[in-house]
Give the backbone structure.
Amino acid sequence: MLEIIDPKDSPFSMEKLEAETYAASPHGIAVCSIAPITPGHTLIISKRIVTSMTELADDELCDIAIFSRHVTTVLMNVFGVNKFGWTIQDGEAAGQTVHHFHLHIILDKPFSTPVWYPKQDKSDEEVVDSKSRSRLSPQDMSTIVTNLRNYF
């Protein structure tokens, strides 16, 4: 069962994510994934620490949805793609590994099978988690974040 966490212990605390954050709304932040599935892979993270989307107040959920749409539109233009996926792992059974609500924006190339589908099919054998993917170097992260901040 997912436990309630102290804000200072969240891996998604605003202080810990400052270097990776490139845009914000009243209730959410856009953060580059440290271990992207595709270029532009972004996490939209609620500012208030809740484990589940169902715990968000209506105004928070609406703001995060509209913010996610805006971030997705910008990312599609910046990275030159015309399709994307949003994914939320809400609960341990759904694969949630961080106990703080977040939505993944995963960009994909036109006319291709989404890159994460085959990995999801193997999820029992292969964990589709950032720990099993290559990580961006601090320099690469800084370059990407600095570039994306120019669009917001």
In short: Residues 7-141 form a domain with the HIT family, subunit A fold (CATH 3.30.428.10). The longest helix spans residues 58-79.
